[in-house]
Amino acid sequence: MNPTPGKTNDSLSDSNSEDARQQKQKKKKSSTQLPQPGTTQGSCAFDSAMITLVPITDAAHVVHGPSGCAASIWGSYSSLSSGSMLYKIRFTSDIDENDIIFGGAKKLYKGILELARRYKPMAVFVYSTCITALIGDDIEGVCKDATEKTGIPTIPVHCPGFIGNQNLGNRVAGEALLEHVIGTAEPDTSTPYDINLIGEHNIAGAIWNVLPLLEKLGIRVLAKITGDAIYKEVCYAHRAKLNVLLSSKALINMAKGMEKKYGIPYIEESIYGIESINQCLRNIAAKLGNSDLQERTEKLIAEETAEIDEKLAVYITRLQGKRIILSIGSFKSWLIIFAAKNLGMEVIAILTKNNTEEDKIRVKSLLGQDGIILEQNSPEEILQLINQNQADMLIADKRHQDTSLTARIPFLDINQERNHAYAGYIGILEVAQELYAAFYNPVWEQVYQPAPWSEDEGVGEVGEAGEAGGAGNSSEEEI
Ligand code: SF4
What pTM value is reported for the model? Predict the structure, then answer.
């Protein structure tokens, strides 16, 4: 049986993570429940379940609920595909008032039959939402009937938004795969170097920066769960020799489940930052247990590191020593920390009210002993921080853009859509280019000019930041 909300909450008992703590807190009586910072961070569980599963590109993804649930998130994540584009089509049962009174299961069933006829997907994933979970529509039964009728695997995902936070949605999605998909097919061949990559959804093509490295080492990625994945590869993921969990705690229950059910060990790795990718490759080679592979891995690391160092040299010259004030919010802000360290930049991290205790611990470990971490969020406080620390750049979401303009320092919008892949060695170069472009944008030369009506106020007052803009113009051709 697919995880029901009740079962999902039970599965939290083996986790010490922040979201488990939050769920336990939620179980307390509302009169005694105190609000905790970060508990309302991000969107709903349904949203994150979709983020996890929609990158299965040749499947149809059906939202069983009001079309607004699907509309609120669809298209906001740039997970890329090298093949089928079916995953980009938004299917919804579009529940209305009549369905809420009489039930929407029949409508869902008819919809699945119709899309199966028209699009012939390799599988259909059906997502419950708050409304359809509350009215008790039997999506398990509908999926079973639809599978029998069409011959296309139809998988229920019990992810109404009210069950919890984003991490819980990821977890429900992982458990649906474990329950209904993994182990249902066999690969044509099997090698001792078969691995699964779990938790990287190929946003902006991130996974494509890593696959060539593994290919050079002769390591085969059997299944990508789920960036740029096809349904079939997830079905035979149980034949891998190792699960590599990438930058994601959310799918750890699935990795643990595969270890228990199929004896596949797992490791937790990151592919963001040069040291992290080096360590990731080393750990994979060590786990696959072959000395020849380990030697080849060291050789590859040496080659790739030398190449990226050469490419980064010019950016390091122009960026090292710069002080950036970085608001820790979206996923991208974590990537900036890795890149800034590689580029010799100094990071002053600002924690927002949305950060959890887990975030705080993680930032501290990333910035090390000397890292500065502050909890400030109002424009006045940030302006004060910029002045006190003589910061050279503000990296935050765009509501703080005016603050950077007031301080006359460059600004990088951290929440803009991710169009660049930051993973792997090439990813660091992408971040360096983005930081460089923001720092040395010619617009700063204009910003540092005195206003025509105040000729007496000179550029000199701007100081360090003024130097950044001017230098940027002169060196544009060098890069
Ligand atoms: S919280 Fe519920 S109603 Fe709102 S988007 Fe999520 S599933 Fe839909």
Answer: 0.82
